[in-house]
Amino acid sequence: MTEVDWEGVSAENLEEVSESRADRVMKLIDAITTEIREAHKTKYEMEAAERTAALCLEAQRELAEFLADAEILAKESKADVESTESKQYFFYQAASVGKTSDAALKQKTAGDDEVKAAKKKQYKSEADYNKWRNLFGFLKDAHIYFRGVAKGKSEWS
After folding, report:
1. How far apart are CA 111 and CA 137, in angstroms?
2. Distance separating alpha carbons of residues 87 and 100, to the nearest angstrom
3. Prediction pTM value
4. pLDDT at 35 (0 to 100)
5. Alpha-carbon distance 92 to 89, whole Å?
6. Per-residue DSSP letters for 11-37?
7. Burial letters 25-51, b for 16+ CB under 10 A, else e
8. Alpha-carbon distance 45 to 153, whole Å?
9. pLDDT (tens digit, 9 = 90+) per residue, 86-120?
10. Torsions phi, psi of 44, nearest 5?
11. What is the spatial distance between Cα 94 and Cα 88, in angstroms, rounded to a whole number?
């Protein structure tokens, strides 16, 4: 596997760079999932279990680096929503004729297409972050399982 040089990575190209890391993580997870299915079907060999446990650690390492980037992306998306909402609020306030209530301005802002798009991006980035975090837990459990099989202590094999 090739390492990604994170120098010069910006919010604009993070998704492109992260996608390649996401692909690598997903390939590792797919390989581990295949091994889990194999362990479910037949008695899993201790030597293969050692290699699969190591593969789980490699996937955890790769995912840990990616997870930090996914968290930053989620936080940046949240900040973008706040900025967009604020900008649009003041836009509607300046465009209003006469005195418009705060509640009416907030309602206009919430219905704004630009605000909706920013929120959609935020929800997607938060969902992705949660997905990756949950997959990290899966990898941890898989590592423990295969390590147990390698030591001959698994009750499941």
Report:
1. 37
2. 17
3. 0.71
4. 93
5. 5
6. HHHHHHHHHHHHHHHHHHHHHHHHHHH
7. beebbeebeebbeebeeeebeeeebee
8. 12
9. 999 999 999 888 888 999 999 999 999 999 999 99
10. -90, 130
11. 10
Dihedral, 12, 14, 16, 20 alpha carbons, nearest 10: 180
Contact criterion met (CB below 8 Å) for 142 and 56: yes
Quick one: which H or E segment has residue 141? helix 113-150
- DSSP label of 110: H
pLDDT above 90: residue 11: no
3-state DSSP: the chain helix, strand, coil percent, rounded to 5?
Answer: 80, 0, 20
Of 125, 120, 118, 121, the closest CA to residue 87 belongs to 118
Q: What is the mean pLDDT of the chain?
A: 85
Exposure class string for 61-100: b at 16+ Cβ within 10 A, else e: ebbeebbebbeebbeebbebbeebbeebbeebeeeeeeee
Q: For residues 73 and 129, is the Cβ–Cβ distance under 8 A?
A: yes
Cα 155 from Cα 44, distance rounded (Å): 12
